[in-house]
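Q: How do we represent a protein-ligand complex in a form that can be generated token by token?
A: Start from the inputs.
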Amino acid sequence: MPRTVPEVHTDLVLEPRDVHFDWTGLPLHWIPDEPFATHTINVLHLLLPEGERWFVEVFKEALPLVRDEQLREEVLGFVGQEAIHAEAHQQVLDHLLAQGLDPRPYVRQIAWLFQRVLGPKPRLTARRRRENVIERVAFVAAIEHFTAFLGNWALNSPGLDRAGADPTMLDLLRWHGAEEVEHRSVAFDLLVHLDPGYLRRVRGMLLGGPLLVHLWVRGVRFLLAADPSLDGRVQPSWKAAWHVARRGMLPDPVQSLRSGIRYLKPGYHPTQEGSSAQALSYLAGSPAARAAAGAH
Ligand SMILES: [Fe+2]
Ligand SMILES: [Fe+2]
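Then emit the structure tokens for the protein with fe (ii) ion bound:
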């Protein structure tokens, strides 16, 4: 099946960077005195290890369906990058646990969602299995739109620096964000390759967008309640989110919603969002990415 979008990324070579972060000195509130902003961003660590491992499984299932050598290479590069992202965020979860914030009850629910509800269905016929894989690729493509949006935000978030956010956590967020911007087209191009239909794309977003918001809100509530230093004193609210976003520590909720709507435009392509040049420039200077490059 021919690809129906312009070959904007024919020279894209995705390199998994085997980064490592030292969390020993990370304070529980790594944005000083900002537990709400800290835990709203910490939801990433709750969702991504299971979520990105699931992306890897879906893409491995989709690989035999790919009939384009360049796209195949991109899918393999994407899988390599996402596998490292999942492990990097897993290490933050382990650090939270060591600090007395037990993330496991929430993570168990996320694992159930990705492994059971959205996992492979072994008893399907070959035709139905193909349908099921493409449906899940559409879901990944919708989520990848948001990871690129968030990555682009992380690369352009001086508010976090102004607030004195921990530099190692900022490097994790921006290294990951830069790789999300770098590979932002892969899931979408894979979806178009397997099914160029508009309906499937829309369905992926209509399911994925609200689910992501729901999981995020639940995640913030969970972390604020589980944080042993807060004793339930900080209550999450949309008003608090607006306030923190205005000070540049979170993405603007309206911009985030608008971004989700842009995905539904018939002429949408991920390259319209974010800048590959900026992402690569960050990766060239990222302490973790530089250390990973030096280790090879
Ligand atoms: Fe990722
Ligand atoms: Fe990604």
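Residues 1-8 have pLDDT under 50 and may be disordered. The two ends are 38 Å apart (CA to CA).
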